[in-house]
Amino acid sequence: MSSNAPRSAYSPGDAMSHVVAAQQGKGLTTLWRIIVLTWRHPWMVIITILSCFISSALQLWTPVLLGQAVDRAEGVLDGGVGAADALWSIAIILLVVSILRGLFTMSMNYFGEAVGHHTAYELRLAVYEKIQRLSFSYHDKVHTGDLITVGMLDLEGVRMFFATGLLRIVLLSTLIGVGAYMLISTDWILGLLALSFAPFVGVNSSLTQLKLRATWLTLQERLQDLSRVMEENLGGIRVVRAFAGARHEMKKYNEASDRALVLTHKRVDIRVNSTSIMNISFFVSMALVLWYGGERVISGEMTVGTLAAFLTFMTILQMPVRQLGLLVNSVARASTCGNRLFAFLDLEIEIKDEPGAKPLKLSQGTLKFENVDFAYPSAPFRPVLSGISFEGRKGETIGIVGKPGSGKSTIAHLIPRFYDVTGGRVTIDGQDVRALTLASLRQAVAVVQQDSFLFTTNIENNIAYGDPWAKGPRIASASEYAQLHNYIIGLPTGYETIVGERGVSLSGGQRQRLNIARSLMLRPSVMVFDDSTAAVDAGTEQRIRTAMKRFARDRVTLIISHRLSSLMHADQILFIDEGKIVERGTHEELLALGGRYRALYDLQVKPGDDQLEAAE
């Protein structure tokens, strides 16, 4: 983000909240979109549902077989002819049914998970691709942790919906519906007693899961805060160590962790209380069945096997009824997570190829700003640049200087269309950059920024990031221009040396020089150095500038710097103040003018009176 970008008026997570707000009330639409995604794998879905039906049918057949087995066992005890053979037959059938049920349950679970993971794979690619295309203005106001939450936790909630939502609807509908019909059709009074626990357990489970869902959303926010604290600490661990801030950081982390722990205890209490109540209701219902069914058995109106079948049915139906709450939770979670995920995927890309955009065609390589105005999208009524006009031709160097926040870096960001101008236009060889394809524009314009980000890989891959297929000599040439080659070949493993996370194993100046080499690899037509040698010593900077003279002959070069020694040699120097060009000319012309540039020069270069006295 540019140093003069306006400070956000809301917390980082609010940007994502505003996006989600537009999706409220679209729960059914969201669920339908998830269903459509799962049907991209029709054969796996069909196999899963068929396996579910077959597994449910076999499970419902099990109580019938057990009831018959009990009756046959009773016949064996009474010395019935053929009862033992019948009992063996039922036992074999029951074994076969159990094996088949296990196989079809395994098939259901396997393909159900497979559908979810294939869907998640496609969504991960879509989320990652979206992140690559989002404009700078979006990343200016959204915290990295929020994007990670969408790409991981929310995506996981959507992934699980097929297995824990859609598939569970089929499973529970079959087990509860058919099971209830079989019980009531056998003995409607005993059937109602056996099912008496179901409404109570189902309602209690649903309410409990809704409570857990609400607390889970809060817990997710608190865990997100926890991850932000950790992410910030890891990013600034050297500052923490330098200022002995470990105690303060531990206090922050402990407070965030404690808030999450308190809510976790609350969720455990809710779950335990609900489970206890459901168990009591189930055992009360079972006691009623035993009491009433026992009376029927004693009176000879029912066999012991039938009563055993009822009790087995109750045991089988207990779990599906309990899962009604999990079903409600799955639907609620998928709806909430899906809202956030699809709201992100549906975001309009602010900076993109316009309809009919054409590749950049270079001839003279002339860069031109024509009365350019700009304000950041988050503060449209607060202009950052006003009436900026200048022209740079091939082989020319333009220097830009000014106090922090004056708009220097914003000028650099407008050339490759990191942002779009709000007035005027930026052209290259007369072609408005907004009418060009982003790929061709950013291939032709390289911005070397002060903050050098390096990937956790070797030096060669970092330099060749813009062109991974570049040959070794070309990589070495770019390093020589950046005055880094001699240092690299002096390392034990040379260009194969692995830089640490974010390049922590290199000094600030080395990281900046590597960043310069990476940009030179693209051989751009416009080179922009945005305070890119601030961490480089004066001697090395002079050698870089000397080496760059030959490289700069065929391109426009912009140098943005607070250090006048970095841009004194420029063909034209622009002094920016409050978004306007207040002085322009060569170094000698600006000194002769005796204005702000001269004052800055005297401050940086001309010795002060106290220094003269010390010298005398």
From TrEMBL:
Q: What GO molecular function terms would the record report?
A: ABC-type oligopeptide transporter activity; ATP binding; ATP hydrolysis activity
Where does this one sit in the cell? Cell membrane
Residues of the ABC transporter domain: 367-603
Sorted alphabetically, which Gene3D superfamilies does this protein's record hold?
Answer: ABC transporter type 1, transmembrane domain, P-loop containing nucleotide triphosphate hydrolases
Q: Which top-level group of life is the source organism from?
A: Bacteria
Q: Which UniProt keywords apply?
A: ATP-binding, Cell membrane, Membrane, Nucleotide-binding, Sugar transport, Transmembrane, Transmembrane helix, Transport
Q: What is this protein called?
A: Multidrug ABC transporter
* UniProt xrefs under InterPro entries: AAA+_ATPase, ABC1_TM_dom, ABC1_TM_sf, ABC_transporter-like_ATP-bd, ABC_transporter-like_CS, P-loop_NTPase, Type_1_exporter
Tell whether Transmembrane is among the UniProt keywords: yes
Q: Which CDD domains match?
A: ABC_6TM_YknU_like
Membrane-protein topology: Multi-pass membrane protein
